[in-house]
Amino acid sequence: MPEHRSGKPRYHHGDLRNALVRAAVDLARDGGPEAVVLRAAARRVGVSATAAYRHFSGQSDLLAAVKDHAQQCLVAAMEESREGIRGEGVEAAREGVKALGRGYVRFALREPGLFRSAFCGTVDPLGADAAGPPHGGQHHPQVRSFQMLTESLDALAEAGALPATRRQGAELSAWAMVHGVAVLIMGRHLGELTQEQTTQVVERAFDDLVAGLAAP
Amino acid sequence: MPEHRSGKPRYHHGDLRNALVRAAVDLARDGGPEAVVLRAAARRVGVSATAAYRHFSGQSDLLAAVKDHAQQCLVAAMEESREGIRGEGVEAAREGVKALGRGYVRFALREPGLFRSAFCGTVDPLGADAAGPPHGGQHHPQVRSFQMLTESLDALAEAGALPATRRQGAELSAWAMVHGVAVLIMGRHLGELTQEQTTQVVERAFDDLVAGLAAP
DNA sequence: CCGCCATGTTTACAGCGTCAACATGGAGCA
DNA sequence: TGCTCCATGTTGACGCTGTAAACATGGCGG
User: Thinking of the domain B67-121+137-214, which architecture would CATH place it in?
Assistant: First the structure.
């Protein structure tokens, strides 16, 4: 794998696709999905605009790549957040769910541009991995995050904090609450909040969530 | 107030601002906020693109007008949905909250373009009505919908289905759950759902919400 | 060593938001 | 009644965008 750090501009870039994705991700980071401008990404890489068409079918395809990366970042934030929460009791199970939510919300507030990019457009339900991963490859990132949620809710049910009769369908309630909290705070729909107010309001929402799931 | 339905193209339109808003709203209805293209709206009205600058400071200003209209539509949907739910008991209070949520979600699913337009960009927290309505005018639509939510939560508390100690901060939980449900279903993040599956999953989420709010 | 074709470039076009300069005609005043 | 002013429209231009077509380059397999 050759290194391409040399300043010499060579006709063939060598790693243009990834370079474009990195540039596009940077654009998305500050500016959101609408800032992912194909020509701007090409300009940053030092390449002509149309060169991008050798690696992407168009701007929307580049944006899709950014979206994939953003979803992976979201998953990473969730995984990091629940590290160490591995107990067996009811409280540990509840903390597992909350930790996932905290990672989700913190990512949205720390990287609003990427978070918005991760959920832009409609997720095509007939993606490349519609029938499972083809050759042992990875699931789509969003599938992965949904799987984490499922596991944590299973643990919640196993610990007795979620009646078995209500286990099915719990994913939507949990995801909706967490996503809604993230979107509303990120969009400043509750006004400007101090960091302390933010954590307070977020924790309250998570408490309501797990309490609702625990109801008979 | 003159009528301008005549086919004769007159140099001075007479009601251009509202005509442009109507056209822009139509664009937003199918296509969302990114479909609100100034030149397209002007074309629909049969007027030059730059004419719009006599009534709007630019495209973002036109989009802001669309957003206002969309928020009013959302409020109307919520009001219609809770019509007739005026009882006094605990169950009536719960139904009041749920009715608001149902109107919210149904609007999002019936008019996704308008719903997305209603929440595009960040709500500028220092809007024209930051210090209350200036001269007896209306509150900003979003303030109105938030007020409806507040009232229904007050009723819930009064009926005993929301402990007084947890009354404060309940708005976020409720709004987040409802908003999250709307966004996730609208964005097809749970796959394609039949109408029946949709109502089922929505009602479940609302059950979890009111159960969570009722917890001690 | 050579030729192919993956990967780059240049050029071009239409549509977008926006500005400047110009045109029109209705409302108010002489 | 008639004139004039300016709110409201128009045309033209600029730079930006996405994208297509035609052309250039040079690394790699034969």
Answer: Orthogonal Bundle (1.10)
Task: Tell me the per-residue pLDDT of A41-87, one tens digit each, with 9 for 90 and over.
Answer: 999 999 999 999 999 999 999 999 999 999 999 999 999 999 988 88
CA angle A66, A68, A69 (to 5 degrees): 65
Instruction: Identify nearest nucleotide to residue A54 by CA to C1′ distance.
Output: C7
Q: Residues A85, A71: contact at Cβ < 8 Å? A: no
Q: What is the mean pLDDT of each run of 10 residues along chain B (216 residues)?
A: 50 87 98 98 98 98 98 98 88 97 98 97 45 46 90 97 97 98 96 96 98 95
Q: Whole-angstrom Cα distance, residue B183 to residue B177? A: 10
Q: For residue A139, what pLDDT is reported?
A: 56
Q: Is domain A68-122+136-214 classified as CATH 1.20.1260.10?
A: no
Out of B189, B204, B211, closest to residue A123 by CB: B189
Chain B residue with CA closest to A120: the answer is: B187
HSE-CB of A45 using CA atoms within 13 angstroms: 31
Nucleotides of D under 7 A from a protein CB: 7-12, 16-22, 25-27
Q: Between B125, B180, B191, which is nearest A180 by CB? A: B180
